[in-house]
Amino acid sequence: MIDRSRVLESCVAMKPFTKRLIKLKTIWSKLGEYKAVCVFMHGSSGFSDISKGYMRLMASLGYLVVGPDHIKYHTGLPQERCIRYKTTVNNACKRANQQMYRYVTEFRTNELTIVVNMLKCMSKCKIVALGTSEGAIAVARLRVPIDTKVILSYRLKGSYFVKSRILIKPKGTHVINIYGSEDEFFGEKRSVAARSRRCGSAAIPR
Q: Please, which residues have CB within 8 angstroms of residue 5's CB and are 6 or more apart in sequence?
């Protein structure tokens, strides 16, 4: 069972036209004032320099950027070992890893759903969900209608994470999918996903 309060406690934020991460709770009472919010879902490495770069980009466009930190959420919990992994062609199909992918996929989607629903309750703002790699899977699977889904560094086809197309597109939601053909993990030819196509038993039924 995911702890809603712990998810929201883990969230960081970046105000429009700024470059500094702050704790979401410090601006909690003012969330209703923002007209556009981007929920950023980081990849498996957490808030790396690349992730912060995406957040700064969206902030520079006038968005309040909110990012749940699932690494912080899991710190000290028994499941902490489930979220730290290095996928290779040799281990992508192992049963233990497939169970781990299933847990991560479920958790990240539920995490995003909690944050989006919270924003919808507190504001009538435009909501964009932007995810990269592991975080992009959560964005693709989000069932709650929002303005736009931006799915980066993940190809919307089967992979060792999921065995089939995973895009859920609620009515009125726009979708942008950008990935590199040479992406190490999800590219079209020599990636881990392309070389381990038999995987995907972690997939969750739609």
A: none
